[in-house]
Protein 1
Amino acid sequence: MKPPVGILTLQGDYEKHRQAFEALGVETFGVRRAEELEQVSGLVLPGGESTTLTRLVDRAGMREPLRRFASELPVMGTCAGLIMMARSLVDEDREDYGVEPLGLLDCDVRRNGYGRQIDSFTAALEIGGWGGGKVPFPAVFIRAPRITRIGPDVEIVAEHQGEPVAIRQGRILGLTFHPELTRDVRFHRAFLDWVHGN
């Protein structure tokens, strides 16, 4: 039996991810320390507040362990999780908030690229072969980051108004939106396929 799927539980919307995997009959494990990464077969970096998440990751000594983990096993980052996984940030006030991404995914990201909390919205995304056929995915964008550049080895999974909002590089998946805030578990199921080696 494979180890459970890990969810980084330092800060953010990790409980909703746990519920999504639970709906798929999958056990999860809350990861708060570097040594706990050895107990999981994949990892989710949830949405939350990227400044706080950066500080907590560094305080827990998890920066390098997370990089090593992502070089071997699947990782999914949503919203702030994507910000943490990016190669670099393009925000004009970057030095003011101290977010230092992990460089797991070859992309550049702008924090709050779609606006503030009041600008949050839901969009129906075409996700092609990601288990939905012609059924759009109801993506929830909350203070969502914007992907401003992707590297040559990065695949676009979904777009919104011509811009990438879901991307993958190998077994690393980055989403600007919150798939865990819907009842649609297609992204979680696709991530599980990588975790289980399908």
Protein 2
Amino acid sequence: MDIWQATHRARKDLADDLAGLEAAQWKHATLCGAWDVEHVVAHLTAAASVGRWAWIRSIVAAGFRPAVHNERRLREHLGATPQETLDRFRAVIDSTVAPTGDLPAYLGEVIVHSEDIRQPLGLPSRADTGAATEVARFYSSRDFTVNSKTTVAGVSLRATDSDFSAGDGPEVAGPVLALVMAMAGRRTYLDQLSGEGVALLSSR
């Protein structure tokens, strides 16, 4: 799979969904902590705009506190209006800027944050199964932008809609997107999963 192509497609799909939002929906809560929809979109714009050296300077200036770094960069990319925030996001749809070469992680960021927005708004998912499978493989093998490998340690993961499987232990089975979201710490996706390992994931 061409990871950048998949990332660009995921960004475009989200931008198309955002174009239909009403003003109040931009302030709707998401699955991403205290950030509303507009905050998450600005964060994704920042993520597509900060290369290696800019990221290093920013994280050092933030005292190596990722939350501070993320909040500062988000504020840089918020527009004066939701439409301006969306326009800024559209401008980076085809960006190939990333802090490191771990491209599945940055594809995962777009997929996960898109669902962070869509699920609370009741919008149908548009995540590509193949792209989500690439992210699932990465998440199950490494703790990077999220503590995904630690979260699923000691369980066996099996996608019911793709060829993804990983790990050993009590089984957790379900759609690969739900597995990705669970690995990213989104509890609301656990009800799409089944197997003896789900209780263990829930406890984490």
